[in-house]
Structures
1.
Amino acid sequence: MSRELSNAEIDWCALAAHEVNRAFCQAMGDNSHVAWEQVPDDLKVVARQSVLAIATRETTNKQLHDDWVALKKLQGWTFGQTKDAKKKEHPCLVAWEQLPFEQQVKDDLWISTVKSLLAAFWRIPRQ
């Protein structure tokens, strides 16, 4: 990168990737994801950190998932059969290989969205 990403650029990438993922989930019948403006601050921190990881190193969907799992565990989340924010339980707190295909696609969409925006900001070449 020729210069550091601004906070605004990081926020735009996180917002866009979140909304792409939310739209994908809605298309799959999952309406549990709220609009970016309603996302709790701790989840926005995770989103911004993933943007920075993608911007600063070659990140695979497995690495992105592993990073997400580690951050969620630091925030006190544990595995649960269903997502429950009050109990801090999530069914995706498993190894990458155990994720349902749809969840793996979400990570692919996240990375693609962030890379596309970074390319638009002239940070990385389009692939």
2.
Amino acid sequence: MTILIAPDKFKGSLDSFALCEAMALGVRDALPDANVVNLPLADGGDGFANVMAHYLHTQPVQAATEDAAGNPIIVQYQRNPTTKTAIIELAGASGLALLAVEKRNTLTTSTLGTGLLVKHALEAGAKTIILGIGGSATNDGGTGLLSALGYRFLDAANREVKPCGVNLGEIERIVAPEKSIEAVFTVACDVANPLTGPTGATYTYASQKGASPADLEVLEKGMGHFAAVLENHLGKPIANLPGTGAAGGTAAGLLLLPHVRLQNGTDIVLLNSGFHEHLSNANLVFTGEGGFDAQTLQGKVVYSVAQACKEKKIPCMAVCGKVDADDAIIKACGLIKVVSISEEGKDSYGNAGQLVREKVKDLLADNYK
């Protein structure tokens, strides 16, 4: 019997590598002769680069850059000089978690630091850039990142506009760098929000990054103006394109690059992990995530894994940190069983690995005696 283990992380408790190991121990406790295949997974958010590095055989690289507030920092990204591939997380330099609460200001924060990492990778010879854009502290439409790559954003008097959210309304013209950027960019984009409007970058996410109600009005007005300039430059509609609102509109700005594709982060990981090939040889699949609820159906790792299993009629079970879902959600996801490690009187964070091991063992004992 071949059992494929393909989970996301338990955020704050177990990364997907540790979760795989805990599940594998549970399998061996119940079925010592089973063939176990571990495939740690991720979406385009936290952990994306580490998981991708595992499959693309990259090595960490240190580079000087700055955080979203402009403070100098040293950040790590991943690079494989043989395949000329670099993996960069926007959250590594321009992430919300890097800023103290009092420093979070979407009017002035910028993705420039991420752009400097991309520039570093390009100058080192990278021809493929895989960019995870979850967890940003910004609402600058990606102008900071692009300015680091040589794009210029000019006002009506042809003066350069400092790239940040509050200045988007001043941009009247976009000038591409003289030397075209030939690298291919794959952007891990896990949301479907458009650039503007009530479900766009500003009104959906900026308040979580420190924007006040008054800030939201300024930012949305500027983003709408920037969208029009962007559309005029590219000669095609952008503002309502699904996914362009990701990372404070960074996904939209990146469409200025000559060779770029927005793609679901989970799909990128599944492809590079060889998940579908491994799935063809599996008799059973275990997956999992920290919190299983209705949002899981919006393309998270567990949903993607379970749906692939359903298509091939391979049973799939999930062990999660917490479960807040009824039978209809579980059925829609495609799982035959989902259990939680959260139990009264037990430290589900401190003992997550052991609890996962026990749950997997119990599931197999109950269903595969």
3.
Amino acid sequence: MKGHPYKGIVAALATMHLKEIAIAPPLSEIVGLRVVTPKGIDTDVLGTFAGDIPRVGSMGEVATRKARMGMKLANTAIGLASEGTFGPHPAVPFATAGMELLKLVDDERGIEISESLVTAKIVFQSAIARSVDELDSFLARSRFPSHGLIARPNRSENSAEIIKDILSRDDLVAAFDRLTAASIDGMVIVSTDMRAHRNPTRMRSLSEIASRFARRVASLCPVCACPGFGRSGQIEGLPCETCGTPTRSPKSEVFACVACGHQEIRARSDGRTHESPMHCDRCNP
């Protein structure tokens, strides 16, 4: 991007799971940022999906610590990091979702730029079994072996007994041979590996948020020209299309600068001007 303050600047992406495959291209193409991955970085010390190392703090706090870890190793003023979590969908009952956060930390300007994504397009499964032969349905849902697995004893005196990088049926059989012997009840918990390099569906989600994030970083504040001017919130009150009563749905979006605090209130990006009466407290109390 011509004239952008980050054009040609180096940023350290803190990852040991090949996230640069998804994150680096849009930042390079849209912003001109040069993304590097520091060698020898161990982001697992900040928490793992397998749970053998707990994550301490919010997604945003961990992403900041992770970005700074990369900045220190690469000796850069700008760092990048992503965090993900998986569980119940925040808006759709009985559905699961992936929550992704991508953050840029800029010590030269004293700012942080973040973008988040909630998606139901995930492969996130688990099952408990005594043998691999009981897992046919689970393996199909998990898209194994294109998506990796992790396994652990269902009940064990050694909670650290976890096998990762299960990428073939032979790997899975070997894991069961080892873990059933270590399990008090002879059962094994098998779960989808949610690390980006072992989960192609998650890697696609990272590509999606990276493109959105790059566009946000490319957006400069109209007042101070700082990168990262973008949506920071919303204002409720979209009127009901039947009675005109303000509903709880957002009627406008708030855009803000991460540096000077300049704000703008804009119409909804999807162009909607009214809400269905089914979401109106007056029409549908």
